[in-house]
Specification:
The complex is a heterodimer. Chain A is of the alpha+beta class. Chain A contains five helices and nine strands, in the order βαββαββαββαββα. A six-stranded parallel beta sheet of chain B has the order 3-2-4-5-7-6, with helices on both faces. A six-stranded parallel beta sheet of chain B has the order 11-10-9-12-13-14, sandwiched between helices. In chain B, strand 19 (about 505), helix 23 (about 515-520) and strand 20 form a beta-alpha-beta unit. In chain B, helix 1 runs parallel beside helix 7 (about 135-150). The radius of gyration of chain B is 24 Å and the shape is globular. Classes of the chains: A alpha+beta, B alpha/beta. The interface of A and B includes residues 21 and 170 of A. The structure holds thiamine diphosphate and magnesium ion. Thiamine diphosphate binds near residues 385, 437, 463, 467 and 470 of chain B.
Chain lengths: ~180, ~575
């Protein structure tokens, strides 16, 4: 079976330890996780996780079901097949002496990234995009000497009016 | 009026119908124990080791279907529960484990006997809680019991800091739980049930595999109706034994590594498999690629994550087995499957699997048969782990629903004695027999103390072969008989029992087997039988690890293959 990247969106109650439970599950079952992010959602007391997992579809379905089995996890959807917006943010600190500075600034422009900090010999660049864009941006900058890279991991949302991981009415009632 | 955390805990337990708990106290749980005299309806049984307490809670839970409760103090008390909790997790046993924790102000400071038990038990509990304030305790207890017993049952741990037990709060026991992330499905999808019925109605060689789920859901009648209506042979897993009467004409034993050869061979031939409340463990399936190669698989289970986990499934039905089978039965047509049934009978005739040889000395299989004969099968059998466990499962005839209590998923040596103790406490009127190995018995032998003090009338039969027999068998078959670290030196078990004031007999001669069993049964209270059995007896049939079910070895070692 084909091994590919899948993006899962999980709605979870914001109880302490929920991220730990998810992470523990992935480790224990040997799931190969590329990135995992968690933050607030539009619902009170509900956080939203985005998990990028590498595997074949049967394995990813296991990840989804095992995750959904956790008591604190309300709903998990595999949005890989849907039309989705996937975004990640990166901060990159790159060597930028005056000799290469303008060249770097041109690349930043092309990728519609932003310079958020300037010092005499380095820049911090903020870039958002999907994984591919950030990776090629990073590759373009590599030659200048990267001092630091920090990436947030992906968040995803499906296009159009539908919810990415809709919670059924019955469960919504229980969310106080 | 405000109550202390300890009082709230006791009253919450009473609200959940708890009347028996197994535990050992320690510094941080003294406040809880201190309130127990106020609640005489809560019986606490002091065990000798927390592992014994956890297995006792399991035995109690498995014998009754109720939630078993065990209690331990923080640190080493809590870690001693871990094996029992893991065992309950693997075998879907409803259990609530309550542990004391150091006071909240000390958490994270590596305080004396502070251990992160919620962290440790994260992967072996259905859910767990660290209670952070007294006011939330009642709600958490309510949730814990709800989680433990509903859906796919399992262990839930509640870790309670000492100052939460001594703190004060208003006590209102909630009448409902609010768990948006937990909605176990009850009714199976009607369209799936319809599809399954069609497949079964059209099948020529259907086969039912019933697992522990059929016992948990108490679907005995529904299972029987399904089998009888369409004349479908029934095989169980090890943990499914006693979900269907073994003397029923449609019963064909159990499958897997030490299951009956005819059951394993039938799996290869069937065209439709109806898997009910089982999880396709590797000990059951053998090599996955060779498992049921000719069958379409219908898998009925309450846990959606079990569907497709180990084997491909053609028709999954997720929900509570009982209502699913009731609905399925409405759509099942009468069949006779004469050819298939006679093929099954032929397989059983050609591969009898559980014949035993006649010997002058005692072989373990003989002892188990005599226990069966003497009790007329009217007993709950609890086992340790090893050869004796397999022989008990093979040679006792389980007709009584839910009459085998054995550690399947985790295969925990030391399970037998404490689990039997819990089962007997739960069902004082049942004959509870612990069939144990000399190795397994020594792993929780200390519970003889509990059994003696509480006068818990379990009958203990040790099949004393002087070996860690199951491992020795592997060494014999696969490691050229190099018996490294498997010979045991055992104490005189009857003397040990005697030291606890438990009567016992060592049985060395075959003619003494039946009378000794009789003596054990006629003696009030606990009794120990130490059977000195043939040391190098092997368990057959056997599917070697990694082989397909059809590669089952029958005694004497000879390969059989299906045509
Ligand atoms: C706690 C634990 N440790 C080790 C094992 C591995 N093991 C499986 S069976 C067995 C031997 C059991 O010996 P005994 O209880 O005497 O039973 P017998 O096989 O001799 O009937 C061992 C060591 C286990 N299952 N559980
Ligand atoms: Mg032994």
């Amino acid at each position: 079976m084909l091994t590919t990247k899948h993006t899962l969106v999980a709605m979870v109650t914001d109880k302490p330890g929920v991220l730990n439970r998810a992470a523990s599950l992935f480790r224990r079952r040997g799931f190969n996780i590329d990135s995992i992010t968690v933050g607030h959602s539009e619902l009170p007391h509900i956080s939203r996780m985005t998990i990028v997992v590498i595997g074949n579809s049967a394995m990813v379905e296991q990840v989804r079901k095992q995750l959904e089995k956790l008591v604190d996890v309300i709903k998990v959807a595999d949005v890989t097949e849907a039309k989705t917006i996937i975004r990640e943010l990166a901060l990159i600190k790159v060597n930028a002496p005056s000799t290469t500075r303008s060249e770097i600034m041109q690349i930043v422009d092309i990728f519609r990234a932003k310079i958020v900090d300037v010092s005499s010999d380095s820049l911090i660049i903020e870039a958002t995009g999907d994984e591919d864009k950030l990776s090629s941006f990073y590759n373009m900058l590599r030659g200048f000497g990267i001092k630091e890279l920090a990436r947030t991991g992906c968040v995803a949302m499906i296009r159009g009016g539908a919810k990415s991981a809709a919670i059924d009415k019955e469960s919504l009632k229980d969310i106080q | 009026m405000k109550k202390t955390g300890s009082q709230i805990l006791c009253e919450s337990l009473i609200n959940e119908g708890v009347n028996t708990m197994f535990g050992i106290l320690g510094g941080v749980v003294i406040p809880f124990y201190d309130t127990l005299p106020q609640y005489p309806q809560l019986k606490h049984i002091l065990v000798a080791h927390e592992q014994g307490g956890a297995h006792a809670a399991e035995g109690y839970a498995r014998a009754t279907g109720k939630v078993g409760v065990c209690i331990a103090t923080s640190g080493p008390g809590a870690t001693n529960l871990v094996t029992g909790i893991a065992d309950a997790y693997m075998d879907s046993v409803p259990m609530v484990a309550i542990t004391g924790q150091v006071a909240r102000s000390l958490i994270g400071k590596d305080a004396f006997q502070e251990i992160d038990i919620t962290g440790i038990t994260l992967p072996i509990t259905k859910h767990n809680y660290l209670v952070t304030d007294t006011a939330s305790l009642a709600g958490i207890v309510k949730e814990a019991f709800f989680l433990a017993r509903t859906g796919r049952p399992g262990p839930v741990l509640i870790d309670i800091p000492k100052d939460v037990l001594t703190g004060l709060a208003e006590f209102n026991y909630p009448d409902r739980v609010s768990l948006p992330g937990y909605k176990p499905k009850v009714q199976g999808h009607p369209a799936q049930i319809k599809k399954a019925a069609k497949l079964i109605n059209e099948s020529k060689k259907p086969l039912i595999i019933a697992g522990r789920g059929a016992i948990i859901s108490e679907s005995y009648n529904e299972l029987k109706q399904l089998a009888e209506t369409a004349q479908i042979p029934v095989i169980t897993t090890l943990l499914g034994i006693s979900s269907f009467p073994e003397s029923h004409i449609l019963s064909y034993g159990w499958l897997g590594m030490h299951g009956m050869a005819y059951a394993n061979l039938a799996v290869e031939e069937c065209d439709v498999m109806i898997a009910i409340g089982m999880r396709f463990d590797d000990r059951v399936t053998g090599k996955i690629s060779g498992f049921a190669p000719n069958a379409k698989i219908i898998h009925i289970d309450v846990d959606p994550a079990e569907i497709g986990k180990n084997v491909r499934v053609d028709i999954p039905i997720v929900g509570d087995i009982k209502p699913i089978l009731q609905n399925l039965n409405k759509a099942i047509e009468k069949q006779d499957h004469i050819d298939w049934i006679s093929r099954m009978d032929q397989l059983r005739k050609e591969h009898p699997s559980i014949n035993i040889r006649d010997t002058d000395f005692i072989i373990p299989q003989y002892v188990i048969r005599q226990i069966y004969e003497s009790t007329k099968g009217n007993a709950i059998i609890v086992t340790g782990v090893g050869q004796h466990q397999m022989w008990a499962a093979q040679h006792f005839w389980f007709d009584k629903p839910n009459s085998l209590i054995t550690s399947g998923g985790l295969g925990t040596m030391g399970y037998g004695l404490p689990a039997a103790m819990g089962a007997k406490v739960a069902c004082p009127d049942e004959n509870v027999w612990c069939i144990d190995g000399d190795g397994s018995f020594q792993m929780n032998i200390q519970e003889l103390g509990t059994i003696a003090r509480e006068n818990i009338g379990v009958k203990i039969a040790i099949l004393n072969n002087g070996f860690l027999g199951m491992v020795r068998q592997w060494q014999e078959l696969f490691y050229q008989r190099r018996y490294v670290a498997t010979p045991l030196s055992c104490p005189d078990f009857v003397k040990v029992a005697d030291a606890y004031n438990i009567p016992g007999i060592t049985v060395k001669n075959k003619i003494d087997v039946i009378p000794s069993i009789k003596t054990a049964m006629e003696t009030e209270g606990p009794f120990l039988l130490n059977f000195i059995v043939e040391p190098e007896e092997n368990v057959y049939p056997m599917v070697p690890a990694g082989a397909s079910l059809s590669e089952v070895l029958e005694e004497p070692i000879r390969k059989v293959r299906c045509k």
